[in-house]
Design goal:
The chain is mainly α and about 90 residues long. The chain has a domain at about 1-60. It contains three helices and no strands. The protein has helices at about 1-30, 35-70, 75-80. It is rod-shaped, with a radius of gyration of 26 Å.
Length: about 90
């Protein structure tokens, strides 16, 4: 789960950088040679971001399901209690 979050953050950072580069290029209006590559990279990064968001939701769902199942499990009372006294 932590790995998924880390990857998602990395991809979100890349998407943000590529979007900012696109805005700068639009302001300059002169650069057309790198625009195609940037758009391709941006679309790939957005697809990765979507995939990692889906993975993260899936992991969160599994964790919540595990917690619910764990609550349903009976406690092993024998390990929690101890003998008060014993007859010898």
């Amino acid at each position: 789960m932590a790995e998924c979050k880390r990857r998602l953050e990395e991809v979100q950072y890349r998407v943000k950088e590529l979007e900012e580069e696109g805005k700068k290029e639009l302001e300059e209006e002169g650069k057309k040679e790198g625009e195609e590559e940037r758009k391709t990279a941006l679309s790939k990064a957005q697809a990765e971001e979507k995939k990692y968001r889906k993975d993260q939701r899936l992991w969160e769902k599994k964790m919540e399901e595990h917690r619910r199942e764990e609550k349903k499990m009976p406690w092993n009372v024998d390990t929690l209690s101890k003998e008060g006294f014993s007859k010898i």
